[in-house]
Design goal:
The chain is an alpha/beta fold. The chain has helices spanning 2-31, 36-58, 89-96, 108-112, 116-122, 133-145, 170-178, 215-220, 223-245; strands spanning 63-69, 78-82, 103-106, 126-127, 149-152, 182-188, 203-209.
Length: 246
C-alpha cells in the first residue's frame, strides 16, 4: 500500500508539474532556440525543479529528505562524486544543487526511458557508455567552464544497500586533466526508497555536501589513487551518517 501511495502521489504531482511548467518551458525554448547551450540550460532548470518536487513533495510524508552542506560553499562548477544506493539518487541531486542546474553522467538505460530519457537527452546529460573518453572530457570541460555542476555516480550501478561498489576511474582522470573542483557528496537512508524491486519504504534520507578535495591533491594524485581516496572519504562519511540514524 505504501508503494502504491507514493507512486500515485508522484504521478499526480508529475502531471501537475508538467501542466504548469510545460508552457513556460516551451516559451523559454523558443526564446533561446538560437543557442543549444542556453536551451539545454533551460531544460536542466526544469529538471532540477521537477526533482525538488518529487523528493520534497512527492515522497512527503513517507520519506523525509534532509540536506546538509558541510563544505562551506554552494554547489557550483566542478565534478561532484556521489555514492549510489538507489534509483532515487538522480532525483536527490536536486537537494544539493542550489545554484546552476546540474548536468548528470548516466548509463545507457536512463536515456532509453520514455519520459525521463527524453528530457535527459534534451538537457544535454552525458550517456557515458555511448561516448569515447575524449568526448566525455570535452563535454565535462564545456560544463565546468560554464560553471555547471557535473554529477557523477562512479559505482555505475546502484548497490541497493549500505554497501559501496568499486568506483570507475574515468571522471577522476578527467578532473585531474581539467584541474577542476572535485567534491564528494554522501547520500544515505535511501537504499529502500525504493529498493532494487522498486518497492518504497518510509525513511529519512540525508544528502551531505562534503568539502572539496584539495586542488593540489587532484593535480598530483594518479587517477587510480584519487578514486580510492574519494571512495574512502565517502565510505567513512556514509558509515557515520548511517550510525547516527540508527
Amino acid at each position: 500500500m505504501l508503494t502504491f501511495a507514493v507512486y500515485t502521489q508522484v504521478l499526480l504531482l508529475t502531471i501537475l508539474y508538467c501542466m504548469a511548467a510545460c508552457p513556460f518551458l516551451l516559451l523559454f525554448l523558443l526564446l533561446n532556440c538560437g543557442s543549444v547551450r542556453r536551451m539545454r540550460a533551460v531544460v536542466r532548470f526544469f529538471i532540477l525543479w521537477y526533482g525538488k518536487t518529487v523528493i520534497f513533495l512527492g515522497w512527503y510524508p513517507y520519506v523525509r529528505v534532509r540536506f546538509e552542506n558541510v563544505s562551506g560553499k554552494p554547489a557550483r562548477g566542478g565534478i561532484y562524486i556521489c555514492n549510489h544506493r538507489s534509483s532515487s539518487d538522480p532525483f536527490l541531486v536536486a537537494a544539493f544543487t542550489l545554484g546552476r542546474p546540474p548536468a548528470q553522467v548516466v548509463n545507457r538505460w536512463p536515456m532509453r526511458l520514455p519520459f525521463f530519457g527524453f528530457f535527459a537527452r534534451l538537457g544535454g546529460y552525458l550517456d557515458v557508455t555511448a561516448h569515447s573518453y575524449e568526448e566525455a572530457r570535452e563535454w565535462a570541460r564545456e560544463m565546468v567552464n560554464a560553471d555547471v555542476p557535473v554529477v557523477v555516480f562512479p559505482e555505475g550501478t546502484r548497490s541497493g544497500s549500505r554497501k559501496m561498489n568499486q568506483f570507475h576511474g574515468t571522471f577522476f582522470r578527467i578532473a585531474r586533466e581539467l584541474d577542476c573542483r572535485l567534491v564528494p557528496v554522501a547520500i544515505t537512508g535511501n537504499e529502500h526508497c525504493p529498493d532494487r524491486d522498486f518497492r518504497m519504504s518510509c525513511g529519512r534520507v540525508r544528502v551531505r555536501l562534503l568539502p572539496e578535495v584539495e586542488r593540489r591533491i587532484v593535480r598530483e594524485t594518479p587517477p587510480f589513487q584519487l578514486k580510492n581516496l574519494v571512495r574512502r572519504i565517502l565510505m567513512e562519511q556514509t558509515r557515520k551518517m548511517d550510525e547516527a540514524a540508527e
